[in-house]
Design goal:
The complex is a heterodimer of chains A (160) and B (116). In chain A, 29% of the residues lie in helices and 24% in strands. Chain A contains three helices and five strands; from the N terminus they run βααββαββ. The termini of chain A are far apart. The N terminus of chain A is likely disordered. With 116 residues, chain B is α/β, with parallel strands linked by helices.
Chain lengths: 160, 116
Protein backbone atom coordinates (compact mmCIF):
# COMPACT_ATOMS: atom_id res chain seq x y z
CA UNK A 1 0.00 0.00 0.00
CA UNK A 2 1.25 3.41 -0.82
CA UNK A 3 1.72 5.65 2.17
CA UNK A 4 -0.87 8.36 2.63
CA UNK A 5 0.03 11.46 0.77
CA UNK A 6 1.28 13.89 3.28
CA UNK A 7 3.83 16.53 3.75
CA UNK A 8 5.40 18.56 6.43
CA UNK A 9 5.41 22.17 5.29
CA UNK A 10 6.03 23.28 2.60
CA UNK A 11 2.73 21.97 1.39
CA UNK A 12 3.95 21.02 -2.08
CA UNK A 13 6.63 18.69 -0.75
CA UNK A 14 6.45 15.04 -1.86
CA UNK A 15 3.73 13.25 -0.02
CA UNK A 16 5.70 10.68 1.89
CA UNK A 17 6.14 12.17 5.30
CA UNK A 18 3.34 10.55 7.19
CA UNK A 19 5.32 7.51 8.18
CA UNK A 20 8.19 9.72 9.22
CA UNK A 21 6.07 11.86 11.46
CA UNK A 22 6.70 9.66 14.47
CA UNK A 23 10.42 10.11 14.02
CA UNK A 24 10.22 13.82 14.54
CA UNK A 25 11.26 14.82 18.01
CA UNK A 26 8.45 16.66 19.73
CA UNK A 27 7.07 18.36 16.61
CA UNK A 28 5.23 21.54 17.44
CA UNK A 29 3.81 21.95 13.98
CA UNK A 30 2.98 19.47 11.27
CA UNK A 31 1.11 19.87 8.04
CA UNK A 32 -0.11 16.61 6.57
CA UNK A 33 -1.99 15.95 3.38
CA UNK A 34 -3.95 12.84 2.67
CA UNK A 35 -6.68 11.62 0.38
CA UNK A 36 -10.25 10.76 1.30
CA UNK A 37 -9.36 7.11 1.62
CA UNK A 38 -10.03 5.17 4.83
CA UNK A 39 -6.82 3.21 4.36
CA UNK A 40 -4.85 6.45 4.54
CA UNK A 41 -6.55 7.33 7.80
CA UNK A 42 -5.72 3.85 9.09
CA UNK A 43 -2.08 4.35 8.10
CA UNK A 44 -1.99 7.71 9.83
CA UNK A 45 -3.59 6.57 13.10
CA UNK A 46 -0.48 5.13 14.81
CA UNK A 47 1.47 8.24 13.88
CA UNK A 48 -1.21 10.43 15.41
CA UNK A 49 -1.09 8.39 18.57
CA UNK A 50 2.70 8.74 18.67
CA UNK A 51 2.37 12.50 18.21
CA UNK A 52 -0.03 12.65 21.13
CA UNK A 53 2.35 10.68 23.31
CA UNK A 54 5.29 12.85 22.28
CA UNK A 55 3.18 15.87 23.21
CA UNK A 56 3.00 14.55 26.74
CA UNK A 57 -0.38 12.85 26.81
CA UNK A 58 -0.70 9.60 28.74
CA UNK A 59 -1.95 6.48 26.97
CA UNK A 60 -5.62 7.14 27.69
CA UNK A 61 -5.55 10.77 26.63
CA UNK A 62 -3.50 9.92 23.54
CA UNK A 63 -6.13 7.34 22.62
CA UNK A 64 -8.93 9.84 23.15
CA UNK A 65 -7.43 12.61 21.06
CA UNK A 66 -6.34 10.19 18.34
CA UNK A 67 -9.84 8.75 18.17
CA UNK A 68 -11.38 12.21 17.93
CA UNK A 69 -9.05 13.13 15.07
CA UNK A 70 -9.73 9.85 13.27
CA UNK A 71 -13.47 10.47 13.61
CA UNK A 72 -13.07 13.93 12.12
CA UNK A 73 -11.11 12.50 9.19
CA UNK A 74 -13.73 9.76 8.74
CA UNK A 75 -16.39 12.46 8.59
CA UNK A 76 -14.52 14.20 5.79
CA UNK A 77 -14.52 10.97 3.81
CA UNK A 78 -18.01 9.76 4.58
CA UNK A 79 -20.01 12.98 4.79
CA UNK A 80 -18.13 15.90 3.24
CA UNK A 81 -17.07 13.85 0.21
CA UNK A 82 -19.85 11.27 0.32
CA UNK A 83 -17.38 8.43 0.10
CA UNK A 84 -15.56 9.72 -2.97
CA UNK A 85 -11.91 8.72 -2.98
CA UNK A 86 -8.88 10.79 -3.91
CA UNK A 87 -10.28 14.03 -2.54
CA UNK A 88 -7.92 16.25 -0.57
CA UNK A 89 -7.84 16.49 3.20
CA UNK A 90 -5.31 18.56 5.12
CA UNK A 91 -4.42 18.21 8.76
CA UNK A 92 -2.44 20.80 10.66
CA UNK A 93 -1.13 19.89 14.08
CA UNK A 94 0.04 22.68 16.36
CA UNK A 95 1.30 22.11 19.85
CA UNK A 96 1.89 24.90 22.33
CA UNK A 97 2.52 24.86 26.05
CA UNK A 98 -1.21 25.16 26.63
CA UNK A 99 -2.87 23.00 23.99
CA UNK A 100 -2.77 20.79 20.95
CA UNK A 101 -4.77 22.33 18.14
CA UNK A 102 -5.69 20.18 15.15
CA UNK A 103 -7.19 21.88 12.11
CA UNK A 104 -8.72 19.65 9.45
CA UNK A 105 -9.67 21.06 6.06
CA UNK A 106 -11.61 19.50 3.24
CA UNK A 107 -13.28 20.76 0.09
CA UNK A 108 -16.48 18.78 0.45
CA UNK A 109 -20.03 19.59 1.42
CA UNK A 110 -20.60 21.96 4.31
CA UNK A 111 -21.18 20.46 7.71
CA UNK A 112 -24.80 20.26 8.83
CA UNK A 113 -25.49 22.54 11.80
CA UNK A 114 -26.64 19.63 13.96
CA UNK A 115 -23.14 18.15 13.79
CA UNK A 116 -21.96 20.85 16.16
CA UNK A 117 -24.63 20.02 18.72
CA UNK A 118 -23.03 17.76 21.29
CA UNK A 119 -26.35 17.05 22.99
CA UNK A 120 -27.48 14.42 20.49
CA UNK A 121 -25.70 11.14 21.23
CA UNK A 122 -26.70 8.10 19.22
CA UNK A 123 -29.19 5.63 20.58
CA UNK A 124 -27.30 2.85 22.30
CA UNK A 125 -28.49 0.25 19.81
CA UNK A 126 -27.91 2.42 16.73
CA UNK A 127 -25.20 1.34 14.32
CA UNK A 128 -24.10 4.87 13.41
CA UNK A 129 -24.00 8.38 14.81
CA UNK A 130 -21.28 8.13 17.44
CA UNK A 131 -18.54 10.01 15.65
CA UNK A 132 -19.54 13.51 16.65
CA UNK A 133 -20.14 12.45 20.22
CA UNK A 134 -16.58 11.15 20.37
CA UNK A 135 -15.21 14.34 18.83
CA UNK A 136 -17.10 16.56 21.25
CA UNK A 137 -16.49 14.49 24.37
CA UNK A 138 -12.85 13.70 23.78
CA UNK A 139 -11.63 17.16 22.91
CA UNK A 140 -11.93 20.36 24.92
CA UNK A 141 -13.23 22.59 22.14
CA UNK A 142 -14.60 22.12 18.64
CA UNK A 143 -15.11 24.90 16.16
CA UNK A 144 -16.12 24.94 12.53
CA UNK A 145 -16.26 27.46 9.74
CA UNK A 146 -16.24 27.64 5.96
CA UNK A 147 -13.39 29.41 4.27
CA UNK A 148 -12.74 29.61 0.53
CA UNK A 149 -15.23 26.78 -0.12
CA UNK A 150 -13.45 24.61 2.42
CA UNK A 151 -14.66 23.08 5.65
CA UNK A 152 -12.35 23.97 8.50
CA UNK A 153 -12.81 21.95 11.67
CA UNK A 154 -10.63 22.85 14.62
CA UNK A 155 -10.17 20.54 17.58
CA UNK A 156 -8.47 21.82 20.71
CA UNK A 157 -7.05 19.58 23.41
CA UNK A 158 -5.86 21.44 26.48
CA UNK A 159 -2.55 20.46 28.02
CA UNK A 160 -2.75 22.52 31.15
CA UNK B 1 -9.10 -8.99 6.25
CA UNK B 2 -8.97 -12.26 8.17
CA UNK B 3 -10.46 -12.83 11.57
CA UNK B 4 -9.27 -15.64 13.81
CA UNK B 5 -12.37 -17.78 14.31
CA UNK B 6 -13.09 -21.05 16.04
CA UNK B 7 -16.15 -22.74 17.46
CA UNK B 8 -16.32 -24.24 20.91
CA UNK B 9 -19.39 -25.79 22.48
CA UNK B 10 -21.58 -24.28 19.74
CA UNK B 11 -20.29 -20.79 20.51
CA UNK B 12 -18.37 -18.96 17.83
CA UNK B 13 -15.28 -17.23 19.17
CA UNK B 14 -13.70 -14.50 17.07
CA UNK B 15 -10.54 -12.61 17.85
CA UNK B 16 -10.76 -9.07 16.57
CA UNK B 17 -7.70 -7.49 14.92
CA UNK B 18 -5.29 -5.00 16.43
CA UNK B 19 -7.28 -2.16 14.91
CA UNK B 20 -10.89 -2.02 13.78
CA UNK B 21 -11.45 1.12 11.75
CA UNK B 22 -13.43 2.41 8.79
CA UNK B 23 -10.92 0.93 6.35
CA UNK B 24 -11.78 -2.63 7.37
CA UNK B 25 -15.33 -2.12 8.61
CA UNK B 26 -17.18 -3.47 5.56
CA UNK B 27 -15.02 -6.56 5.41
CA UNK B 28 -15.27 -7.24 9.13
CA UNK B 29 -19.02 -6.72 9.06
CA UNK B 30 -19.42 -9.25 6.24
CA UNK B 31 -17.23 -11.83 7.98
CA UNK B 32 -19.08 -11.51 11.26
CA UNK B 33 -22.46 -11.74 9.53
CA UNK B 34 -21.36 -14.89 7.77
CA UNK B 35 -20.17 -16.46 11.01
CA UNK B 36 -23.40 -15.56 12.77
CA UNK B 37 -25.60 -16.77 9.92
CA UNK B 38 -23.80 -20.10 9.77
CA UNK B 39 -23.42 -20.61 13.48
CA UNK B 40 -25.62 -20.80 16.55
CA UNK B 41 -25.98 -17.03 16.87
CA UNK B 42 -23.91 -17.14 20.05
CA UNK B 43 -20.67 -15.26 19.55
CA UNK B 44 -17.78 -14.19 21.73
CA UNK B 45 -15.66 -11.34 20.42
CA UNK B 46 -12.20 -11.36 21.96
CA UNK B 47 -10.75 -7.86 21.90
CA UNK B 48 -7.52 -8.66 23.72
CA UNK B 49 -5.46 -7.79 20.63
CA UNK B 50 -7.47 -4.70 19.76
CA UNK B 51 -5.68 -1.52 20.71
CA UNK B 52 -7.62 0.92 18.55
CA UNK B 53 -11.19 1.18 17.38
CA UNK B 54 -13.24 4.01 15.92
CA UNK B 55 -17.00 4.44 15.58
CA UNK B 56 -16.95 2.37 12.39
CA UNK B 57 -15.55 -0.48 14.44
CA UNK B 58 -18.26 0.01 17.02
CA UNK B 59 -20.83 -0.09 14.22
CA UNK B 60 -19.47 -3.44 13.06
CA UNK B 61 -19.95 -4.92 16.52
CA UNK B 62 -23.44 -3.42 16.91
CA UNK B 63 -24.48 -4.78 13.52
CA UNK B 64 -23.23 -8.18 14.62
CA UNK B 65 -25.28 -7.94 17.78
CA UNK B 66 -28.40 -7.16 15.79
CA UNK B 67 -27.76 -10.15 13.53
CA UNK B 68 -27.15 -12.42 16.51
CA UNK B 69 -30.29 -11.32 18.32
CA UNK B 70 -32.36 -11.96 15.21
CA UNK B 71 -31.30 -15.56 15.68
CA UNK B 72 -32.11 -15.45 19.41
CA UNK B 73 -28.40 -15.34 20.07
CA UNK B 74 -26.11 -12.75 21.60
CA UNK B 75 -22.62 -11.33 21.42
CA UNK B 76 -20.44 -11.28 24.50
CA UNK B 77 -17.25 -9.25 24.57
CA UNK B 78 -14.04 -10.05 26.40
CA UNK B 79 -10.42 -9.03 26.77
CA UNK B 80 -11.10 -5.34 26.35
CA UNK B 81 -8.28 -2.88 27.02
CA UNK B 82 -8.87 0.13 29.27
CA UNK B 83 -8.80 2.48 26.30
CA UNK B 84 -11.26 0.54 24.17
CA UNK B 85 -13.43 0.11 27.26
CA UNK B 86 -13.45 3.90 27.61
CA UNK B 87 -14.83 4.13 24.08
CA UNK B 88 -17.61 1.69 24.94
CA UNK B 89 -18.41 3.61 28.10
CA UNK B 90 -18.46 6.98 26.34
CA UNK B 91 -20.94 5.64 23.81
CA UNK B 92 -22.87 3.72 26.50
CA UNK B 93 -22.39 0.47 24.66
CA UNK B 94 -21.33 -1.20 27.88
CA UNK B 95 -25.05 -1.12 28.70
CA UNK B 96 -25.86 -3.07 25.53
CA UNK B 97 -23.16 -5.73 25.64
CA UNK B 98 -22.12 -8.10 28.37
CA UNK B 99 -18.40 -7.63 28.84
CA UNK B 100 -16.18 -10.26 30.47
CA UNK B 101 -12.54 -10.46 31.43
CA UNK B 102 -11.66 -13.37 29.16
CA UNK B 103 -13.02 -16.09 26.90
CA UNK B 104 -13.36 -18.61 29.69
CA UNK B 105 -15.73 -16.45 31.69
CA UNK B 106 -17.64 -15.40 28.58
CA UNK B 107 -18.11 -18.99 27.46
CA UNK B 108 -19.27 -19.97 30.91
CA UNK B 109 -21.86 -17.18 30.73
CA UNK B 110 -23.16 -18.79 27.54
CA UNK B 111 -23.50 -22.03 29.48
CA UNK B 112 -20.30 -23.61 28.27
CA UNK B 113 -17.43 -25.09 30.24
CA UNK B 114 -14.35 -23.94 28.46
CA UNK B 115 -10.94 -25.36 29.14
CA UNK B 116 -8.14 -23.61 27.25
Amino acid sequence: MNPPTSAQAPAQAPATAVHQAHDLAHPDHLHLRLHSDPSEVAALQPNLQDLCTQAGLDAMDAFKLTTAIVEALNNCIEHAYGGQAEKPIELQWTRSAKAIVVAINDEGQALPARALDPATPAATDAECGRGWQIIHEWTHAVSYHRKDKQNVLILTYNLS
Amino acid sequence: MNLDHRTQESVDIVKLPERLMMADAASARAILKDIIDQGSGKLILNLSATSFMDSSGLAVIVSGLQAARKRDGDIYLCGMSKTVRALFELTRLQTVFQIFDDETVALRAFGGTMST
